[in-house]
Write a sequence for this structure.
């Protein structure tokens, strides 16, 4: 289906996305970036390097959940719920999958028999350790599908409105951005049944407390890819917004990256600037020339 949609002209593709993809991806996704942490050359160079990675090299960074700012993020509860036959079948599949190379059938059977004698509590204790390792090695890219004028997002993720916000359009790179799944918000941890296999792990990787709901977050999740980068189609990056408190240091550093993008022959971006509303606690966005 993606190939058929991608072959369509741009506006036909957008119409096809709304009709064929359920639910359709949002029109835009946003990513906030902090400004240089201070006025030093090192801080400026680091900012330019990180922004250039996205805007010129067209790379997106997959973070590890262990680096997130919310210690509750990716938490969950585990259970073992199912028939005795299902339990034994799952144990057999796990033992065979993780058997050392060259293990004999007798050794595999011995490992199976030993695992089958474990209590649910013993298995769950082992599972938590395994999950923490797997979770920390999972790569996650976070986006916002909500309003780029959200005051809290600028405060929390763009250095008190001093940074920038990048605008992506999923319709221009469906292979990448259609993978961005919506985060769900709830007061309780998600419950993962070990007998249902790894497919249930996504519950944990896309659940947060309702107080985070204002973010309207979407995530691209890639198992085993933490702290690495992958490329997206550069035409999907369509705009850049400066925060209302962006100073000359941040603006000039960003303009350096914009010049490098132009020199690389990549599409121009629409530039905007957020400004404080004159009478309300709101932001308004205007074109930046």
């Amino acid at each position: 289906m993606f190939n058929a949609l991608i072959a369509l002209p741009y506006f036909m593709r957008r119409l096809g996305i709304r009709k064929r993809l359920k639910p359709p991806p949002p029109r835009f996704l946003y990513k906030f970036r902090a400004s240089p942490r201070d006025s030093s050359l090192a801080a400026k160079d680091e900012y330019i390097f990180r922004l250039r990675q996205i805007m010129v090299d067209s790379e997106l960074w997959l973070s590890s959940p262990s680096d997130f700012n919310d210690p509750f993020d990716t938490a969950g509860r585990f259970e073992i719920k199912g028939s005795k036959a299902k339990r034994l079948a799952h144990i057999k599949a796990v033992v065979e999958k993780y058997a050392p190379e060259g293990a004999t059938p007798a050794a595999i059977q011995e490992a199976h028999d030993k695992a089958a004698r474990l209590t649910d509590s013993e298995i769950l204790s082992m599972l938590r350790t395994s999950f923490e390792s797997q979770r920390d090695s999972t790569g996650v890219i976070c986006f916002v599908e909500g309003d780029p004028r959200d005051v809290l997002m600028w405060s929390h993720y763009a250095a008190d409105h001093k940074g920038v916000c990048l605008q992506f359009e999923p319709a221009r790179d469906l292979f990448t951005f259609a993978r961005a799944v919506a985060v769900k918000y709830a007061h309780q941890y998600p419950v993962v049944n070990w007998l249902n296999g790894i497919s249930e792990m996504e519950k944990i990787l896309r659940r947060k407390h309702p107080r985070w709901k204002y973010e309207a977050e979407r995530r691209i999740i890639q198992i085993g890819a933490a702290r690495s980068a992958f490329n997206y189609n550069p035409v999907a990056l369509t705009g850049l917004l400066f925060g209302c408190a962006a100073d000359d240091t941040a603006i000039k550093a960003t303009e350096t990256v914009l010049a490098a993008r132009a020199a690389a022959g990549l599409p121009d971006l629409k530039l905007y600037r957020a400004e404080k509303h004159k009478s309300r606690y709101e932001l308004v966005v205007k074109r930046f020339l």
The two ends are 39 Å apart (CA to CA). The chain has a mean pLDDT of 92. The longest strand covers residues 270-276. The longest helix spans residues 120-136.
